[in-house]
Write a structure and sequence with these properties.
Largest sheet: 6 strands, antiparallel
Structural class: alpha+beta
Shape: elongated
Number of strands: 10
Strand order of the largest sheet: 1-2-3-10-5-8
Length: 201
């Protein structure tokens, strides 16, 4: 079968993509990001053209069973599992009182998951709090090339990404794409509170 024959029908320009197709597209993009593969790498592994993969991840086409089968083989999952992952509608609203909070007591870091959870979404909002003097280092991002926006709401924050160091005061916002180690340090005499917007590649 030729690569282009794996592409499905394109949605009508007058209508939005089917909701299931849209969620499936987002999940396919997330799976590729989780593996740290470029479109070119996935094309080589699956035998599907880069253009078809790109259109499938943007819900510009409705993927065929043959296309899904090839991708399921690459990602090591059954088609049933893949479709089950996108079957339910995501929760659209999470009240503040129900947003999960995780505390790293050793470092003085508090992380609140603000965004409604859904496996197929590319963007996520997190509220972070660091106690005065707290210092957190990460040796690598969970996904190479992860895009982050750091917006300080209160206090001061030092952010190091690779060799670059940034000092953020209240209201400042830093955008970066993370490939290697990062460090977050509360630079002021008081606690710092900030928003971290995370976007998968």
């Amino acid at each position: 079968m030729k690569r282009d024959e794996l592409a499905g029908d394109a949605p009508s320009s007058a209508s939005a993509p089917d909701p299931v197709d849209a969620r499936l597209a987002a999940r396919l993009a997330e799976l590729r990001a989780e593996h740290g593969w470029s479109l070119g790498e996935l094309a080589e592994r699956s035998g599907v053209s880069k253009s078809t993969l790109s259109r499938a991840e943007r819900a510009e086409i409705s993927p065929t069973a043959a296309l899904l089968n090839r991708l399921c083989a690459v990602y090591g999952r059954t088609m049933s599992r893949l479709l089950a992952e996108v079957e339910a509608e995501p929760t659209l609203l999470v009240p503040a009182a129900e947003q999960p909070v995780w505390r790293d007591r050793a470092s003085g870091f508090v992380r609140r998951s603000v965004s409604p959870p859904h496996a197929g979404l590319r963007g996520e909002l997190v509220e972070g709090r660091l106690a005065a003097g707290a210092d957190i280092s990460y040796d690598r991002p969970p996904v190479p090339g992860l895009e982050q926006h750091v917006w300080v709401l209160e206090g001061a924050l030092d952010v190091t990404a690779g060799e670059a160091e940034h000092h953020l005061g209240t209201g400042d916002c830093l955008r970066l794409r993370v490939w290697g180690p990062t460090r977050f340090r509360c630079a002021g005499p008081a606690d710092v509170r900030y928003v971290l917007a995370v976007v998968l590649p």
